[in-house]
Amino acid sequence: MKIVWIGAGNLATQLGEALHRAGHETLQVFSRTMASAEALAGRLGCPATDDLDAVVSGADVYIFSVKDGVLEGLVSRIAPRTGDALCLHTAGSIPMDVFRGHARRYGVLYPMQTFSKDCPVDFKEIPVFVEASAPDVFAQTEQLARSVSDRVKEMSTERRRRLHLAAVFACNFVNHCYALAADVLGRDGIPFDVMWPLIDETARKVHRLPPVEAQTGPAVRYDRNVMVRQCAMLDGEPERKALYEMMSRSIHALALRNEAERKETND
Amino acid sequence: MKIVWIGAGNLATQLGEALHRAGHETLQVFSRTMASAEALAGRLGCPATDDLDAVVSGADVYIFSVKDGVLEGLVSRIAPRTGDALCLHTAGSIPMDVFRGHARRYGVLYPMQTFSKDCPVDFKEIPVFVEASAPDVFAQTEQLARSVSDRVKEMSTERRRRLHLAAVFACNFVNHCYALAADVLGRDGIPFDVMWPLIDETARKVHRLPPVEAQTGPAVRYDRNVMVRQCAMLDGEPERKALYEMMSRSIHALALRNEAERKETND
Fold first, then answer.
1. For the segment B162-192, what is each residue's pLDDT rounded down to a tens digit?
2. Does the distance separating the beta carbons of A216 and B171 come in below 8 Å?
3. Which end of chain A has fewer CB atoms at under 10 Å, N or C?
4. Residue of A nearest to B11 (CA)
5. One domain, residues A182 and A123
6. Which residues in chain B are closer than 8 Å to A116, comparing Cβ atoms?
7. Cα B219 to Cα B225: distance, rounded to the nearest angstrom
8. Which residues contact A72 (CB under 8 A, 6 or more apart)?
9. Same domain, A122 and A252
10. What CATH number is attached to the domain comprising A8?
11. Would the pLDDT of B200 be above 80?
12. Which residues does the UniProt record annotate as the domain DUF2520 (chains A, B) (predicted)?
């Protein structure tokens, strides 16, 4: 298919390259900043533009991959000019209906992964959730998704929103915990790579156990001495301290709930 | 070396088995609950006891691996009877000096990993941090540690405490974020394994990028629309909602600080 990209961020870069490798042709990359547009266009071997009025017609698919706050504006300007082409967005949290009244054939193609421009990923393994405005549109969207991923599933706007919330917990919040650990280590000049075996095993474990069963450490043991001392180490940083306390309480609460549920099941 | 275990939890189980495989002999396992003592003793082929007065003498090493709150009591009861044997504990947050006045030769052997009884780990890869009361004691502690791990390092009580705090962030808090994600998915009947590629990539990425650079998602983009909508999905759960808000603010604050630091470096 012939593709026009609206947006040139991390996701557009990785999905754009995956579609390129799968043999699709990119006609153009639009971004509000020319440097971004050119960077992705260079990777995909096509022209770049930062001029909304210069977005070309004649593509089979227009893929909108931009910040939520600007998506609606771009959809209302560009989608009406796309005729019978397929209009897709790639966002977990945005309803498919953002296109309603602007495009004739539209849908969502949400690859659930964390993308950075220079971290190549194996797209085949990435779960891709699709939704479309009509059966023939769905078939086309699914075909496009299947050309890059082996794990394509249909999912409604409502369920996709909850999936995206779960992804924020399992990825963005997780990564932030890594960042806070790096910060703690940095002050002692300890390189972050000392954490890799722990990080990898923590991720590996939840392939074998439900996360609530995999939990270890002071909060789940309710080892108050350790928690109090660790909190004291964060005395100069009230926000981090509050975060530590809130996470510890939440871990303990979930462990108690899990235990109660198991007991009930056994009774 | 001949080993006596004081404690039979997750860490004792995994380290006990690793030492067993490395050819050390376990003389006995003590635990406050006989069932736990017997479970580990069964794995290590030795007697079990829940009677403090029955802890045998004549071992080369006594390894204390128990909850922080009970460690001091056990040390004061058992360590004085160990003569010239090596007394070790395995806790990140507890000072080596917990043994002072109770044991003659003592130290710490802290394997930084998350252990569950039935999740075997490759001990060779696990960073083990050691500390000891005197050079000859250090040599013996290091020798024991090196018999199971290729990544043994000396570390003081003070630095180990900070390391353990970092480990709580990078492991326990991370795992809790997985658990919260599983909870969100569970309500929609979506199996947790859909998250594996995202979880694995999130862990993989911080092998290549500092975590603060690896961050993606609504909070770091400061995509207010998405954050407000995701918060609204947590309306019925004030604690989760507060956690979501606090994590999002913390992500944004760290991103701003990182940007400011980079700018300063470039100026």
1. 999 999 999 999 999 999 999 999 999 999 9
2. yes
3. C
4. A216
5. no
6. 205, 209, 213-214, 216
7. 10
8. A98
9. no
10. 3.40.50.720
11. yes
12. 126-251
